[in-house]
Every structure is written in C-alpha cells, then in structure tokens.
Amino acid sequence: MLQKYCIALEDIVYWAQLSARAAPRRTGPDTGQDKMLREGKIMVTSLYQSLCNMETIYADHVAIRYYDEAKQGVTEVYYRQYAQDLRRFVAFLRAEYGDVRGKRVAILARNSYQYVICMYGTVIAGAVAVPLNLGKDWDAISYELGFAEPVCILQDGEFAEREPDLAETYGSILKPMDVFAAYEPAEDVTEVEDLSALAFIMFTSGTTGRSKGVMLSQKNLFAAMPAFLNPFDDVRKATGWDTDKFCSLSALPMFHISAMTSLVSWSITGHCINLCNDLKYFYRDIGAMHSEVMAVVPVLLKSLYKDVMKGRRDRLNGLCVLTCGAAMFDPKMLKDLMDKGFFIAQMYGLTETCGDGAWNSSQEEKHLTSVGHVDDSCQYKLEDGELCMRGDPVMLGYYKDPQADLVALSLPDTPETRHLFNAGRMALCKPGAILLNVGRGTAVDGEALAAAVHSGQLSGAGLDVTDPEPLPPEHPLWAEPNVIITPHVTGGFSLPKTLDNIVDIFAHNLKRYAAGQPLDNQMDRRTQYASGARLQSTL
Fold this sequence. Notes:
four-stranded parallel sheet, Rossmann fold
C-alpha cells in the first residue's frame, strides 16, 4: 500500500509537467460557464459578492431543492429567496447579539436548507461558523462547544433528543434552525472588513486524539474554488455534455469540507443544488430530484457500484458524474463505472486546505491510481515521502491549538505577510506560548506583541528582526523582560567560518558560565547594547 501511495505522489510530477506543456485551460466554445468566467461574473472572492450575484445575475434560477418531509414532496428555492433569507439571518444575529464580528455560532443539525442559511449567513454577518458533526457523542461535542465558546447553538432537535445533556448545559443559547424566518431582511449588509479573518472552524474527526479546530477564512475558501470548478471543464471537453445545466446532489454532511466547498462552488456559478438531508434517505432524494453530479466517499461509491453492476442504474435517476474525495479508490471499481458511462473525477485534499490539492479527471485506465493535476493555487513539494503544500487555500492554523507551545516565523516581507501575526492570531495561541521570528520584522505587529507578552497571553518572544529595524528606544518591546532581541544575526551561514565562530563563542561562554564568570555579549537593557569583545567574531 505504501508503495502504491508513493507511486501516486510521484505522479504529481508527471501531471505537473503535462499541465505545463498543455494548452491554456478555459478554451473552446462559448459555453455559459466559460463566458461568465471571462466576464468576471462568477470569479467572486467572498460570500457577500456571491449574495449580490444571487440578487442580480441568478435571481430567477433555482438555487436549492430539497425533499420536504412535511409536504411529502420537493420544495424549490430560487436564488432571490436564498439571498433574502441570508439577509434575514444577518438581521437575526444583529438583533440578538449586536456586533457579532469574530463571535462563534455553532450548528448541530442534519443537512437542510436552513442549515445552509445559518452557516453562510453567519460568515456574511462577520461571525465565525462552527459546523459540528452530529454523529459524535456528547463527550466529543461538549469538548468542541467548550473549546469554541459559541454565542449560540443552532440545532434541529435531533442531537438534543439523543443527548439530554445538551439542553441541560447549553439550554440558554440553543436556537431552532429556522429562527431567522421571523426577521425582516437586513438591507445594509456589506462586505466584511478582512477576508483573511477567521470565518469557519471545522473540527477534525479526532481519530488520533482530541479533535482540532481547523481555522479557515473566506480567502482560503475562495482560493480553493478553481479546484472544484476545473474538473467540469474536463467533463465538457471529454463528453460534450452541457455542464451549465447540471444539478448536483449534495449528500455529504455539511460539516464535511467537501460538502461546504461544493455548495459554494455551485452557488457562485448559478447552478442548482439538490440537498439530501440524511444518507439514509439517499435513494428517496435522488429518485425525487434529478441530479447529474454527486460528490462521494468510499462507502457511498460502493453502494452505487453495486446498483450499477446489478443493473439497477435507473435508481440513480440520471446520475453520470462522480467526484470522489478520499484515499485512493479501487481502480477496478472506477474502471467498471467508466465502462458503464460514468465520468469519474478524483480529488485529493484536506480540511486544512479547504479540500484543495489535486484532481484527476483522466478517464484512462493507466492513470486511475494517480493523484492527477496539482492545483496551481498552491505550491507543492515532496519531502521525505510527504506532500507539502503552501498557498492561499491553506488554513490559518488550528484554533487554540493545545499542542503549539512555540510559534516560529520565517516569512518574507510581502503585502500578504505584513502583520500576519497580529493581536487576533496572538489571542488564538495557547496561553503561555512563545514566539520566534527570524524572517522579517513586518510579519509581526510589534505593539500587539508587547501587549500580549505583558498580559501573559504569550510568555515571551525571541526576535532576530523587528519593524522598524533597529527598534526605537521608546518601543514597548524593550520594556518586556521576557522579550529577547538579537541584532539580525541569524541566516544561512554564508560567510566563511561563520558557523565555526558561533560555536567558538558558545564554547567560550560555556567555560565562563562554568567558572561563575560574567558572560560576553550579554544585552544591557539600559543601554540596549551587547557587552564583550567577542561580538565581532560572529560577523
């Protein structure tokens, strides 16, 4: 298995080279999607911009269908209504909680139209959406709720019925999923101030211990959108199918990153999403709502495979494109489905990367075990058998990470990195953590750092770089005894004998320390100068 995995990783290089030689993407006939992409109508960068498109470009398009159990039939929601309900939710949050910027809103429920409104309305309002896994037990859920400290918990009653402790512990902040329906739409909704700010906390499964809260911003989310849209160009090119008219069945739970990102990608293109509120109702929902596309995980793919191979494809009601996001699928199973007329797109990613990573839309048998194309929104490298990624889709970090005792920065000076480590990120650190910065001083908000160290949120900092450099005598960092500032001496040891000199200085001071003598090169906080004649030997 390990060998197969390594081979798959190595295929990244092949696909990257192939992509570099290939013709530019998004060429061909003027289909609706391609035309809108070039006109900039769907290349949005935030949920607010998507909201505006719902009210203008897509107002008369069907946005969401779902099976209404009370009516025993399908309900259709147009984008116009979708947008109005998002505005209603913003009005609810404002009325109940005032300025909600940065406040957490937890969601504990099955998939539903109301779930979609609650999750995306939270982010549009400037708050942080925290979708929780309904299948976890009370111990796990109570840990995550205590960790996130939400101002309210939106729920449909299912978990509370199963776990009475929820109401006993959090009864004062429990709200029904349709609470927003009683409010008038907020007309003064605007873009959030910072699209790089925390917008979602997506908890991991916790299979190896306590779950971690993956912090994602709107910038992360929308940077990943091409990875979800690109495979459909490949579908059109390979089959001639009109993907602009496709509907997608969303059967994965909304706390799953694939469900969340798929819903956004289809919304910004004006497509229709058919919601399945629970996998146990899958065949009822797909039978009632014609769908061409569906994202699947291994257990669901196996169920579909059995139906197809037993001649029961009619149960799938037009389903013809499967996007598979998980570990490597059985290539025989994929080949059999392709032979039956299905288009298979495999996707590889993480919650930590908004599901972004690589996709394989090749329908050739020899490529079925490949991870396919790497997405150009990230940079990649193979290191010790691991695939490393960096780029805009990569998470902000883990929320209140209980493991991070030390934060080390080695960043360049760019507009994107300026004050990246600000008061907000310092507040998310484990209390008592230590900061090291050996990159560029502009990556750290110096005044916020001084305040964090002074308050005890951070226990200290080691700075080889500052902003400005040198640091002015009146700067508050000089007054903090747990902050060590060195004169920008770290680096790649490019000068002759630099490393040898550093070792010599250390050995020299070690002897002095053992003999109880004063050390050379100590910083005098009054004069802000280092003492000792051996300082120059490091240069």
